[in-house]
Model the fold of this input.
Amino acid sequence: AQSVTQPDIHITVSEGASLELRCNYSYGATPYLFWYVQSPGQGLQLLLKYFSGDTLVQGIKGFEAEFKRSQSSFNLRKPSVHWSDAAEYFCAVGGNNNDMRFGAGTRLTVKP
Amino acid sequence: DGGITQSPKYLFRKEGQNVTLSCEQNLNHDAMYWYRQDPGQGLRLIYYSQIVNDFQKGDIAEGYSVSREKKESFPLTVTSAQKNPTAFYLCASSRNWYEQYFGPGTRLTVT
Done:
């Protein structure tokens, strides 16, 4: 069965600084990969997804992620963080119908 | 305005009582899901339903029950058999399993 690891529980960055959130997955075949964002007390919003093709994926809110098969990674990046980006971020992997696995999440704090 | 609604936002119950969480969607999605979220554990799948009158257990179905009598509705009952019911519960729906849309969640506290 697939699994996801987000090594960083909590990250703090200054507003305007760049951001990279790490995600490593385990899956035997080509995975479907996702990043979601969750504001406190809210549901999850899909930021971006990778199914196939170009390994650099663009998402909403200025986020991008790069699929690296050799490293089993799908890291999320943003060149310049805004205070409104403070939230919890979840990486997820899927490969079979209705079998999507989520990481434990990374909480992002943005310093003014 | 299409979306998923979950009610109530906060729910309090005494131990030993069953409680039902509501989830409604007007996105015309066939599939619906219930997840449980605990701090530091991400989301875990409780039940899912791909069509009306059919549903499947997820990873942590024990102590929970669901029904899917209408396409728009997928209520979750947390029974007294659930050992640790206090959690944040998220409902989702999708046209394709891999693009799930989430509701705002219900925070259940059992004392």
In short: Chain A is about 0% helix and 55% strand. The mean pLDDT of chain A is 93. The interface with chain B takes residues 4, 9, 32, 34, 36, 41-46, 49, 51, 90, 94, 97-98, 100, 102-105 of chain A (CB under 8 Å).
